[in-house]
Amino acid sequence: MYSTVSGRRFSTDLREAKARGYLSRLPHYNTVFRYLESEALTPYLKELISLSAAPLIPVESDFAVDASGFSTGQFMRWFDVKYGEKEDRRVWLKLHLMCGVKTNIVTSVQVTDGYAHDYPFFKGLVDRTAEAGFKMKEISADKGYLGADNMLAVLQHGAIPYIPFKTNSVPQSGYTPKSELWTRMFHFYSLHRAEFLQHYHKRSNVETTFHMIKAKFGQRLRSKTLTAQINEALCKVLCHNLCVVIQSVHELGIETNFSIEAA
User: Fold this and answer.
1) What is the value of pTM for the model shown?
2) Distance between alpha carbon 70 and the CA centroid of its chain, in Å?
3) 137 and 16, same structural domain?
4) Cα separation of 148 and 129, whole Å?
5) Do residues 49 and 153 share a domain?
6) Could you tell me the pLDDT band of residue 115, with boundaries at 50, 70 and 90?
7) Range of the domain at 90
8) Both 62 and 1 in a single domain?
9) Same-domain check for residues 131 and 23
10) Nearest partner of 57 among 157, 132, 156, 124, judged by Cα
11) What is the mean pLDDT of residues 52-75?
12) Structural domain count of the chain
């Protein structure tokens, strides 16, 4: 994933790693592909992503959430496209993530079907970022995540949600007022729009994060099975995090000791 070359071409790197003592045995490149097809690998990759973000806990306090699609090399039947509800013939997956707006480090991630809605995954991303040890102050997201439950999930972790309201948003439904949090953020958005947008525009950093991942490691998933595609997408995020940590070591002077972070 990191080199973006084929498995056969990567065999040279494997032999060099074996010669330097990084590997005790030299695996065949197909062995790597078989591991990617294992569902047991998925939770380990998510844990590695969280672990790779740990050195930046003292740096990041403002975060952004969004989702983006990754295409695959598989196509669905034309019958399903013509007579079904799906408009795109290519099968694709969606990557939901939360990132820090200062370094673009990814703190939590979830891979779903390409047609899954973004809203239900917001709370899980926020909770997992808090469990990783990050102290959140602000969380920005677009209108697709607007909802009382998501706002409350942010507030429960001591952060302020900066999610813009829709044109048809109102502080009450009929004669029933909405939650106090919804009402206060709605008035803040309506009466102090410029100040609100100063915080909300930090959300653009999550677009930068997706661009960094796709530009460096590709926007297409080359695996054939669904499990392998999910693991491949997670590997792209893990590679991105490692690049961010290396950059932060040189630019911010942070120290990394993953053995301590793991403990």
Assistant:
1) 0.88
2) 12
3) no
4) 20
5) yes
6) confident
7) 40-262
8) no
9) no
10) 132
11) 92
12) 2
Q: Please answer whether residues 9 and 198 qualify as being in contact, where contact means their C-beta atoms are separated by less than 8 angstroms.
A: no
Whether residue 10 sits in one domain with residue 114: no
Whole-number Å distance between alpha carbons of 55 and 163 = 28
- Given this model, what pLDDT does residue 83 score? 62
91 with 7, same domain: the answer is no
Q: Are 19 and 215 in contact (CB under 8 A)?
A: no
Radius of gyration of the chain (CA): 21
The token duo for 196 is 């609100």
Say whether both 85 and 119 belong to one domain: yes
Whose tokens are 């979830």? That residue is 110
Q: Quote the tokens at residue 23.
A: 């590997």
Residues 17 and 97 in one domain: no
Choose between 57 and 181: higher pLDDT: 57
Answer yes or no: is pLDDT of 175 > 90.
no
pLDDT (average), residues 58-65: 96
CA distance 49 to 32: 19
Residue-level pLDDT at 191: 93
Q: What is the dihedral of CA 229, 235, 240, 246, to 10 degrees?
A: -170
pLDDT grade for 157, boundaries at 50, 70 and 90: very high
